[in-house]
Amino acid sequence: MWTLARDTEVLDLNSSYAYLLWCRDFAATSVIAEVGDEPAGFVTGYLRPEAPDTLMIWQVAVSAQFRGQRLAGTMLDELVRRTGATRMETTITDDNAASHRLFTGLADRHGADWRRAALFTPEHYPDGHDTEYLYEIAPLRTAAA
């Protein structure tokens, strides 16, 4: 997962240790896709403790050679099915048009509404990070149309 995240050149890269812990502690709410024996992508997520029907998606990565094959959407649909979540949240920066399309597409497939609002703005960060907009998608159906 660390290598896939690094190779996207756009995701915030966590430590390799963080990805190992994530796999141990959040395996039920995350997914790794393989094509043949090769890791092709991953989605990390968790059910929010204050809202256990809400699946918060942390990162989505797809290897360059497997992009354009709907792999990210398939992984998200699998997590909705697996968790039974009726709501999904994620954060996206303004410059990430691909993620905007991915998550609004998920909303369309599941007949859900979506809304967006600033969650963390540059003054929240010590490193000048761009605004992260919270996308809230609900209600989700567990079987995509």
From TrEMBL:
Q: Which family does it belong to?
A: Belongs to the acetyltransferase family. EctA subfamily.
The protein depicted here goes by the name L-2,4-diaminobutyric acid acetyltransferase
- Per UniProt, which keywords does this protein have? Acyltransferase, Transferase
Q: For the N-acetyltransferase domain, which residue ranges apply?
A: 1-138
Q: Which CDD domains match?
A: NAT_SF
> Pathway, according to UniProt?
Amine and polyamine biosynthesis; ectoine biosynthesis; L-ectoine from L-aspartate 4-semialdehyde: step 2/3
- Does the record bear Transferase in its keywords? yes
Instruction: Name the PROSITE patterns for this protein.
Output: GNAT
Query: Mind telling me which InterPro entries this protein's record contains?
Result: Acyl_CoA_acyltransferase, Ectoine_EctA, GNAT_dom
Q: Name one Pfam family in it.
A: Acetyltransf_1
What EC designation does it have?
Answer: 2.3.1.178
